[in-house]
Design a protein that fits this description.
The chain is α+β, with helices and mostly antiparallel strands. The protein is 24% helix and 28% strand. The chain has a 5-stranded mixed sheet, with no helix packed on it. It has a 5-stranded mixed sheet with strand order 7-6-8-9-10, with no helix packed on it. It has a 4-stranded antiparallel sheet with strand order 11-12-13-14, with no helix packed on it. The longest helix is centred in the N-terminal third of the chain and has 23 residues. 20% of the residues are buried.
Length: 188
């Protein structure tokens, strides 16, 4: 074998090894296994959420309503509330909570346990399309505020909800989830 062919072979081998090392050292986007509204969250977004809410984000498939801040597991009821308006995942699907009821809030068909909770608090719940904001004000889609969900849980309340417990002393309000993240807001 000639020296030029041997040199050329070694050179190619070194280039292949060098490029392999560069590929291995390239910042790989770690899989998060956290899906929100059908879109996988990147690790930076998950780290930001964990820092903001001082809790670990568990792997799973979730829905998030950017208007109200409510969230839950795909196919299930709302189990918590975080800040509204976050850019998390894709658009909220009507079927995010299973799509089993005709009570549509911010484009999501409420889960039957959410409808049952609303019925216990307010009586009859009419099928229809509604909007709900993060403060608890709600109304028929396209119309003004007509309901205040806070009236079911005014200052000094302690109530169980479909996915956990709501409580307040009038200054600090909290949502406690038995198996996951909890949220405290106000002057706590």
């Amino acid at each position: 074998m000639s020296a030029s062919i041997l040199f050329s072979s070694r050179c190619c081998l070194l280039l292949v090894l060098a490029s392999s090392l560069l590929i291995l050292q390239a910042p790989a986007r770690a899989r998060s296994d956290v899906m929100v509204n059908g879109v996988e969250l990147d690790s930076r977004t998950i780290q930001s959420l964990e820092a903001a809410y001082a809790t670990r984000v568990l792997p799973g498939r979730y829905w998030y309503d950017a208007r109200s801040g409510l969230w839950g597991s795909i196919g299930g009821p709302g189990i918590g509330q975080i800040a509204p308006g976050l850019r998390l995942g894709g658009p909220l699907s009507r079927e995010a909570s299973g799509g089993l009821t005709a009570v549509i809030v911010n484009n999501r068909a409420l889960h039957p346990t959410e409808v049952a909770w609303l019925q216990r608090q307010f009586g009859r719940v009419l099928p229809g399309r509604y909007w709900l904001d993060a403060s608890g004000l709600a109304g028929f889609e396209g119309g003004p505020a007509q309901f205040d969900l806070r009236s079911a849980t005014g200052p000094g309340y302690n109530r169980n909800t479909p996915g956990g417990a709501l409580m307040s002393d009038g200054r600090c309000a909290g949502y406690l989830h038995p198996d996951g993240p909890s949220v405290m807001v106000g002057d706590c």
